[in-house]
Write a structure and sequence with these properties.
Elements: E1 5-8, H1 21-28, H2 32-41, H3 43-47, H4 52-63, H5 69-82, H6 88-99, E2 104-108, H7 112-118, E3 129-132, H8 133-136, H9 143-153, E4 160-164, H10 167-175, E5 179-182, H11 186-192
Parallel strand pairs: 1-2, 1-4, 2-3, 4-5
Helix pairs in contact: 1-2, 1-5, 2-4, 4-5, 6-11
């Protein structure tokens, strides 16, 4: 292995890209194109700690739809389900690394509601440390989140291998001294590690 800790991103690394956006757009009775723009326009604030209500009301305001509390709950449930399909090859990799004694950590830009869901999933047991931006109120690629990660892991940056699907996050992790790599699938990660 190339480092003491192996740190994974979640979205589009351990899990597939969400397929929930068309479902969410239909639920609000708006075009998928308009919904996608609104969904992503407000996502950074959501990932940095905005509440489910604040996020979905901002999305609703952008597409011209009133969003009440029961709708917020429904949209949140659908959204979480959309991001919950963990790739079998990723689960196998986690099992292999965990069985070999590699300490694993998760660093994800995701809302606090997703963090609560993730903590109950079987795959989460493989991680000694799980950090979600929505709970921390900071997000990748900010330098502060990598400083916090290293503090929580109680290790030097060179003792971490970091895997993420976004070049900006990988570049920021490298700037913080981590051994960071673009995610190219579980097989490539297994070979790297």
């Amino acid at each position: 292995m190339t480092g003491r800790w192996v740190v994974f991103d979640y979205g589009e690394v351990l899990c597939s890209r969400t397929t929930a956006l068309p479902v969410l757009a239909r639920r609000l009775n708006v075009s998928e194109e308009d919904f996608r723009r609104a969904y992503w326009a407000h996502r950074d604030a959501y990932d940095r700690g905005a509440s489910d209500t604040d996020y979905w009301q901002a999305v609703g305001d952008t597409v011209g739809v009133d969003v009440d509390e029961p709708t917020v709950m429904e949209l949140t449930r659908i959204d979480i389900q959309g991001w919950s399909r963990v790739e079998p090859s990723s689960v196998r990799l986690l099992r292999t690394l965990s069985a070999a004694g590699s300490p694993l950590a998760l660093l994800s830009n995701a809302p606090a509601s997703f963090a609560r869901f993730a903590g109950r999933q079987p795959w989460a047991q493989h991680f000694r440390v799980r950090l979600f931006s929505g709970e921390l109120r900071m997000a990748k690629p900010d330098a502060e989140i990598f400083e916090l990660l290293l503090s929580r892991l109680d290790c030097d940056p060179g003792e971490c291998v970091f895997l993420d699907d976004r070049e900006a996050n990988v570049a920021a992790a490298r700037a913080a001294g981590l051994r960071a790599h673009i995610w190219q699938g579980a097989e490539a990660a297994h070979a790297l590690l």
